[in-house]
Amino acid sequence: MGRVLAIDYGTKRTGIAVTDALRIIATPLDTVATPELLNFLKAYLQKETVDEFVVGMPKTLKNEDSAIAPLVRKFVEELKKTFPDKPVHLADERFTSSIAMRAMIDGGMKKKDRQEKGNVDKISATIILQSFLDAVR
């Protein structure tokens, strides 16, 4: 069984999280400059077995697509073309950034480290992935 990889897509940076091989727990992997995202994924999939992707879909409080949603949908299409044999799941990512910030505070992360936006992106991707894992169990 391969891993599940989650993507918290952003216009500048993208957070990435991945499961262990048994798909028990989600862990932060990296934050990548968005223009380099597909190249990063190609390189990662050459080293690790990934069976499927989960991409966070930004929604408003009214459950409508947010302003960045069309960019995410475009990326999802590119992802499907690049990895046609891998299923891509969309996951609601509302509140993941605020939950990630709360988790960093509760976990005792220093203020300086919390201000690094890449950390929020990685942890947001981890929250998206863990929520997905919990939902499919």
Automatic annotation (TrEMBL):
It is an enzyme of class 3 (hydrolase). Belongs to the YqgF HJR family. InterPro entries: RNaseH-like_sf (IPR012337), YqgF (IPR005227), YqgF/RNaseH-like_dom (IPR006641), YqgF/RNaseH-like_dom_sf (IPR037027). SUPFAM superfamilies: Ribonuclease H-like. It comes from Ohtaekwangia kribbensis. Keywords: Cytoplasm, Hydrolase, Nuclease, Ribosome biogenesis. Pfam families: RuvX. This is Putative pre-16S rRNA nuclease. Could be a nuclease involved in processing of the 5'-end of pre-16S rRNA. Its EC number is 3.1.-.-.
